[in-house]
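---------- Forwarded message ----------

FYI, see the Phosphonate C-P lyase system protein PhnG record below. Original note from H. follows.
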Amino acid sequence: MNRYERTRVLAGGDPGVAQAIAAEIEQACDVEVLDAPREELVMVKVRESARNSLFYLGEALMCSCRVRIADTMGFGYVLGSKRNAAYNLALIDAAFSSGEAFERMSKWEQRIEKEARRQREKQAKDRALIERTRVDFSTMDGDA
């Protein structure tokens, strides 16, 4: 799983998964917090479909954090006021980017894969519920 997919799964999934992995990383190595988790405002850029131009929709609250494990920096960014989530993501990012073969790395990867499967199954169930309400207007009687 690449960095983007791992971050997407952890940011959008059960926060307990990231919390558990981050706790194990803290025990396994020295963590230097470069930028403590903090709230920031960022501009949200959107593409307008008629002219295909970019514009700023407004501001959004996000939390960011930066940590270092050995010589590797890790970054955590989440929408909303979730400082702990940003810190956990930064720890996990640093650990996976470091190239070190942590003893529990394969178990962490398995947990993340399991969470990704759970998210896919939930999305499939949600899509199935939505599909049940779909109306096919081409089959409707026009005389009614």
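H. also flagged this: The mean pLDDT is 91.
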